[in-house]
Amino acid sequence: MTLTRLFQPKSIAVIGGGAWCEEVIHQARGLGYDGDIWPVHPKADIMAGHTVFNTLDDLPFAPDAAFIGINRNATIDIVQTLSRMDAGGAVCFASGFSEAAAEDAAGGDLQQQLVAAAGDMPILGPNCYGFVNALDGALLWPDQHGCARVDSGVAILTQSSNIAINMTMQQRALPIAYVVTCGNMAQTSQAQIATALLDDPRVTAIGLHIEGFKDLRDWETLATKAYAKGVPLVALKVGASEQAQHATVSHTASLAGSDAGAQAFLDRLGIPRVQALPDLLETLKLLHCYGPLPSTSIASISCSGGEASLIADMAVGTGLQFPTLTAAQQSDLRHALGPMVALANPLDYHTYIWRDEDAMTKAWSGMTGDGIAMTFSILDYPTTDARDWVHATNAAKRVRSETGERFAIVATLPELLPLDVAADLMDAGVVPFFGLREALAACEAASSIRPPSDAPVCLPGNVTEGYVLSEAMSKQALAEYGLRTPQNRTARGAAAVAQAAQDLRPPFAIKGVGLAHKSEHAAVRLNVMPADATQIAATIGTEDILIEEMITGTIAELLVGVVRDPAHGFVLTLGAGGILTEVLRDTVSLLIPADDDSVRAALNRLKIAPVLHGYRGKPAINLDAVIATIDAVQFYVIANADTIDEVEINPLLCTVDDAIAADALIRKA
Description:
The chain is an alpha/beta fold. Among the domains are: 155 residues, NAD(P)-binding Rossmann-like Domain (Rossmann fold, 3-Layer(aba) Sandwich); 113 residues, no CATH class; 63 residues, Dna Ligase, domain 1 (2-Layer Sandwich), CATH 3.30.1490.20; 113 residues, D-amino Acid Aminotransferase, Chain A, domain 1 (2-Layer Sandwich). The chain has 23 helices and 29 strands. The strands form six sheets. Strands 19, 24, 25, 26, 27, 28 and 29 form a seven-stranded antiparallel β-sheet that branches. A six-stranded mixed β-sheet has the order 9-8-11-10-12-13, with helices on both faces. β12, α7 and β13 form a beta-alpha-beta unit. α3 packs parallel to α4, α6 runs parallel beside α7 and α18 packs antiparallel against α19. The longest helix is centred in the last third of the chain and has 17 residues.
């Protein structure tokens, strides 16, 4: 299945009547489309100035693209006819398919019929507006849009037609090459569409407004192809993936949360994630101009100490950093600014050189280079009379031209950067950022693009709610894959408890069997000696008890958990363990399989990482033993992917020499 004919059509058919279909024709001509436009309607003669064909069979030949603006039931027959004619593809505008299944049970069946009718012919939707190709002036779009013809630019994909309209109306000097609405994605997924757009060399970056991932393998293919072609991707992921509703036994299920799988999947794909539509647009603008940033090092120069302080504070927590000025930078800046300016990054250059274009160019140039990935000049244009700011615009353009370094003009407020100035800066290769926060978000995203993982995610089976293995059975199952556990015995009755106390090395931990959260039931006793074992076992409250040797020399307690996430695979959560796990909420999440380097990096992101490496003279844990334990859990999950719902070790007792699972839980189907 190819999407090229659909997105770059030489002929389009508009099927249906009314304002929506007429608008498709008006918008196509308005954008400069010079191909054939064929309205199709059984009764009309003229539509938007074009002669109408009464049936599809009357067309000169099969259209490259078709807009189907009729009701949902009739859409299916038209799609089948277009497929039979070998049309290039179609946009299904009608709603009332799977998105309406909650109100109309027939919706899901109709969507299946639609897909079957399409066969190998690609369709967008149903329940979508279609697409705009501003490179070739081609579109199937039944409403207003803000796109203009461009020679190159970014592609934006979203399931939401309304959000797509809003983004086309942006006034930020962002060149948009394609806008595609995906609708229900009945046949062609968002990832497949983006993968097809990568074949157009005029696309410089792709922005993805994602509601759900659908087929994970399609996304892996997209990320791999995009990275190989050097076309960066950025995502705005919204909504919560549907975690298994019964995944509530372990701490992991509550800690991972519904969004952990989505974030872990994007991390695995190497796709940065932004949190708002303005951030998405500003990031795309940066990627269009310069592509991914090589580092998180930025510099800022402004003629106000307040602005210097503001951007420094706003960068806290972003991962971006303002490196100290080098000797070469200080020399260049001192030559440009004189002795009265305190040199720093961010830099307040005062107003001594305002209106002096040469001096401003030299000062701003002095903040570039030497490992700086992006230099900001904070500049707000007045809404009253901005003629005095022309020299600043020219200085910015000269910095880019004379140094070849990445340079941006940043307005503290989005409305204080005129569109004509922004367009002029873009033409000169200077990024015009609309807002300080947005500029920082864009740089953070652009500096976090990474190559995607080579290993495909482990896909879960379609399990139903099942049963929880006992602690002893869970430990035994995991031990077969390399998990280290304390010596233990399961006992019932005083005689069996006494015998177990003789067989094991004290002190003991005595626990109830069959309870998910034993500490909440006061069903755990620690540091029990042999003489007290029988008496304490009788107070645990369960018929069977587990007696095991206690581990001494513990430096840290960790949690290692896995939750089956139907939308993203298996979420591996690592964090601070023990009874305060959910209070501390110090966790990171990955997807299985995760290689040892990724696991090690994840552990180092924990707040308790200093404890793991030896804090204030204390010894470090055996990190290799911890990673081996995590590998054992992963091996078990991969081997049992069709039946696993949850796995948790909490706590994992970490010592100088070893990592021992003090408690374990497995839920299977």
